[in-house]
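Q: Start with the shorter request: fold the first protein.
A: Done. Sequence, then structure:
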Amino acid sequence: RARTAGEHARLPDLLGELAQLSEPPAAGSAADAPPRTALAAARARAAEWLAQSSSDSQRYASELERAERQRLAECLGAEVGGRSLVEQWVAFEFAPARARLSELESSAHAPTRALVAARAAELDAASATLAALVGALEAGQWKRRTISDPRPGRAGVREVLAIDAGGLRLVRESGEEQLPWSAFGTKPESLSGLFEGRLTRDWTAAERDGMAAIARFCALARVLPRLQSALRGSGTRPFGPSEAAEIAAEFDAVAALQTSPEARARLEEERVALLRVTRALIALSEQRPAEAAADLERVLDDPLPSWIALLLSNGQR
């Protein structure tokens, strides 16, 4: 049972004495032969399992990690409430996005659990900062209640009446109007105007990390669909350095909000993954499949995969 469960470290305690038993005496009668044969077989099996325990342990861990990565990919790739994960990011639905990871975080084994916890922490930070923005308005801690409307064709400064789960409620001539969070989510460069200089107090370090996470999610929401489309069309549509540079520029729009070393490091991890994927796409366009495969393998082999790796992969190599 221990071996089937992958508990190979227990085998020396469970089988060590059996494997080390001395050869039993020769059978004195025909009745002695079957138990003597059974004991010899048990000793041999114990010795074999102990000798194989290290390689069996590695194989079990690899198979378990592969299965859990596939479960993670399925969680992240599913539609929840009619929305994909990217659509949840754009709508600032960070708590529902976080809920996708709850089961795996509690049931996965250590390596996968650490990966899930790291990505869940980003979503928790984003939720906390959004809640702080809402709470500050309700507490009268907004320094200014006006905001530039980020929607195309809606240029102008508007007054904020309130905030709800869907976004900001703005004053308009005939009453009020909803400005959805997605107006900011689809235009990451507008996020500075939403957060910076907004409160009568300074943002805490933790809140700034959450702000940085929101900005990364919005940039990733613009990057990932373009990468997915380019990968699907890699055999039929050319992809060159200009396309790669255009996609990479999406991260530049949120770089100023990555104020802590940790936030800058996270953005850089995503940027490196993006560079490798776009380099692979260029190689595929130029008929260099081996180079493309090498770059994609590096993205997938990262011990703590980026969101780009997680959302472009189905969990398999």
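Q: Next, the second protein, separately.
A: Sequence, then structure:
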Amino acid sequence: VTALYGILESETGRFTFANAGHMRPLWARGRGGVVELATRGIALGVLDQIELEEHEIELERGDALVLYTDGVSDAVGQDDQPFGVSRTRAALAEASAAGGASAAQVVSAVISSVESFAGGAAQADDLTLLVLVRRANLPGGVGPGRTQASSD
């Protein structure tokens, strides 16, 4: 069983997390670039004793954090090649490049990119994403740090 455990402090944007063999989170920086958040950890239940590293980042206004399952990166196209992490990163970079994209818009853009790549090929897994976007001003306010989440 893979798992990712994280705590987001909405007021500061601080995200503290540990990863037990799950897909590495992607951090789209509002000022440009997508960072893959690598940590040391193995899936739960593989060994009796494991050590997981805890890491911390601070999301700035305009940053997006994407947590996703392997159904996204393992989606195959007509040529049986996987979508992969590099295409996932590129789709996220494109979705967040314009700035101001909502979490729902990022989810929609990444899923559209995967579906376009797949070209109707049958898939063996689900496409699951959780996107957090730290924004300065949301209509109606979503908590003190105005963090918005969306999943599909």
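Q: Describe the second briefly.
A: Strands lie at 3-9, 14-20, 26-28, 34-36, 54-58, 64-68, 129-134, 147-151. The first strand starts at residue 3 and ends at 9.
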